[in-house]
């Protein structure tokens, strides 16, 4: 367990614990609005930005972040074009992101070593700048949610009622997408682009099993997200595994256990 | 407009709550509504009936500002809908199946969400707000359900929750979008009794979209007062019989509950069989 004393691991742990709060929170809003696939889309587009960053020699996380934000606007636009088939726009932009990423990656074959850590996550690569960026994004997300939680609840529960109450629904939609883009692009280095969306959606899936109220579901996703990041990173550190994999496997185990417990409760009662 | 039959006194003391002037709307090439002019006065009860595709929901969405008309103007309480700010004056009851039954929200959370709006931005709910929530729960007879998840309730109970949410701000205008879809006849009747009672005893204007012809006819009259395309408007004015001087119409939600509990004409289903 001496890995815990190593500086790079401590950085990954702090970064991970911050992500473990924000990613599940944003995921809760997305899942409840039936937009769980947005996480995947934004992360896949973000990875194209990361690839471009490497290619042109600019801080890759920042380029990834810009790509993710651009993608979140594009999704909103396409959603309007295909109103009742919102998931179509998500699928299109996702494959566009992967296509672009694969092109950029093959254009710069020299950096293939680094690609793995962006796809599957790593506890080794998080540097100080990354950590500051994660800290800043976490602060922004938490402040917005703290100030706007009741408005976000109403928009998530009943968008029409929110509009009739005079809330600027379009603004909130864009805000949710942009915040999600921020969270995802800073999470990629730890959790990996392929798996980051699991950290958004699986805690929310767990909360749908246990939570009765919205309040409870907010608490549930954060607790489960934090547990998953903590345990996943420790396992990854001790056995030298990809943290994305350990975190997501832990989340899936929790979900299965909750499903089994619920079944037990139902059969018992 | 079109109110010349009333005494000048009555016409002047009742504000126009909704007014539409020459409103048209089309989806792509298809005209849904054309040249619709219409005025809803304070304390009117408007029943809006039309077949599927007649434009009921479109009209409703235009009135609450969710859709923009292709041409014409819509005013709410005298202000253009684009510039209208006092949304807390409007209570809105959505179609029953507008939410996911698995959604993690309690009855209380849903009812309190009725308070959220422009003037509550960046503010936490106060004690007085929670009290309003309690009153709304009481008025609808759903206090004992407040900690249940909304999806666990029956259709009739859910209706009451949404009505409580709409009433929490003591709105001047209540808009109901097919509130009785997918609900058994008995519960529909009790719901409609409740609405009628509110119309008769409260200073509230109603706009209700419904497919339920019998109910609309029995309360609002056999013949539509106005028609536009396939849209039919049945109207009952409350102000015709009423002296304009009378001011004391606004009841608190608590008052509503007391009246409903004592009154024989309202049948509450599923609770309080005392």
Description:
- The complex is a heterodimer of chains A (269) and B (274).
- Chain A has 269 residues and is an all-alpha fold.
- Chain A has one domain (2-268): ABC transporter involved in vitamin B12 uptake, BtuC.
- In chain A, 83% of the residues lie in helices and 0% in strands.
- Chain A has 11 helices and no strands.
- Chain A has helices at residues 7-32, 38-56, 60-81, 86-107, 112-120, 128-157, 159-164, 169-191, 196-210, 214-239, 243-268.
- In chain A, helix 1 (7-32) packs across helix 9 (196-210) and helix 2 (38-56) runs parallel beside helix 4.
- Chain B has 274 residues and is an alpha/beta fold.
- Chain B has a single domain (8-262), classed as P-loop containing nucleotide triphosphate hydrolases (Rossmann fold).
- A 6-stranded mixed beta sheet of chain B has the order 6-7-8-3-10-9, sandwiched between helices. In chain B, strands 2-1-4-5 form a 4-stranded antiparallel beta sheet, with helices on one face.
- In chain B, helix 6 (185-201) links the parallel strand 7 and strand 8.
- In chain B, helix 4 (127-139) runs parallel beside helix 8.
- The longest helix of chain B has 17 residues, at 185-201.
- The termini of chain B are far apart.
- The A-B interface holds A 32, 34, 147, 150-151, 153-154, 157-158, 160-167, 207-208, 211-217 and B 61, 64-66, 85, 87-88, 90, 92, 94, 98-100, 102-106, 108-110, 112-114, 116-118, 120-122, 125, 147-149, 165, 175.
């Amino acid at each position: 367990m001496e890995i815990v004393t190593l500086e790079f691991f401590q950085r990954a742990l702090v970064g991970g614990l911050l992500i473990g709060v924000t990613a599940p929170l944003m995921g809760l809003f997305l899942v409840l609005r039936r937009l769980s696939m947005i996480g995947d889309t934004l992360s896949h587009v973000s990875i194209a930005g990361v690839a471009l960053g490497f290619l042109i020699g600019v801080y890759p996380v920042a380029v990834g972040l810009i790509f993710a934000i651009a993608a979140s606007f594009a999704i909103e636009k396409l959603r309007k074009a295909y109103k009742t088939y919102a998931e179509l726009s998500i699928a299109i932009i996702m494959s566009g992101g992967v296509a672009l990423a694969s092109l950029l990656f093959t254009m710069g074959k020299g950096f293939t070593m680094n690609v793995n850590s962006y796809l599957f996550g790593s506890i080794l690569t998080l540097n100080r700048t990354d950590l500051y960026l994660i800290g800043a994004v976490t602060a922004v997300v938490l402040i917005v949610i703290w100030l706007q939680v009741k408005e976000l609840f109403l928009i998530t529960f009943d968008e029409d009622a929110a509009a009739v109450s005079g809330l600027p629904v379009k603004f909130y939609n864009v805000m949710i997408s942009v915040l999600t883009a921020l969270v995802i692009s800073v999470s990629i280095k730890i959790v990996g682009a392929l798996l980051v969306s699991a950290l958004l959606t699986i805690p929310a899936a767990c909360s749908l099993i246990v939570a009765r109220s919205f309040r409870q579901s907010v608490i549930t996703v954060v607790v489960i997200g934090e547990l998953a990041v903590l345990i996943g990173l420790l396992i990854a550190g001790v056995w030298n595994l990809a943290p994305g994999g350990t975190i997501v496997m832990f989340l899936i185990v929790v979900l299965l256990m909750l499903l089994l417990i619920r079944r037990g409760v139902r059969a018992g009662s | 407009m079109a109110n010349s039959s009333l005494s000048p006194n009555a016409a002047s003391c009742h504000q126009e709550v909704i007014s539409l002037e020459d409103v048209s709307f089309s989806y792509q090439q298809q005209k849904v509504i054309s040249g619709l002019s219409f005025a809803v006065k304070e304390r009117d009860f408007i029943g809006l009936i039309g077949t599927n595709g007649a434009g009921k929901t479109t009209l409703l969405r235009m009135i609450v500002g969710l859709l923009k008309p292709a041409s014409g103007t819509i005013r709410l309480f005298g202000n253009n809908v684009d510039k209208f700010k006092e949304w807390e004056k409007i209570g809105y009851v959505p179609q029953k199946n507008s939410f996911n039954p698995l959604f993690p929200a309690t009855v209380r959370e849903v009812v309190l969400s009725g308070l959220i709006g422009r003037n509550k931005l960046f503010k936490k709910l106060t004690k007085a707000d929670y009290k309003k929530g309690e009153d709304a729960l009481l008025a609808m007879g759903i206090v004992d359900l407040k900690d249940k998840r909304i999806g666990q309730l029956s259709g009739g109970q859910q209706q009451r929750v949404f009505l409580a949410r709409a009433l929490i701000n003591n709105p001047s205008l209540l808009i109901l979008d097919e509130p009785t879809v997918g609900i058994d006849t008995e519960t529909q009747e009790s719901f409609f009794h409740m609405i009628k009672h509110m119309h008769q005893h409260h200073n509230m204007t109603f706009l209700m979209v419904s497919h339920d012809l019998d109910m609309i006819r029995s309360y609002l009259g056999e013949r539509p007062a106005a028609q536009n395309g396939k849209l039919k408007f049945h109207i009952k004015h409350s102000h015709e019989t009423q002296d304009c001087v009378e001011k004391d119409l606004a009841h608190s939600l608590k008052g509503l509950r007391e009246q409903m509990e004592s009154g024989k004409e309202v049948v509450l289903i599923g609770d309080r069989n005392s």
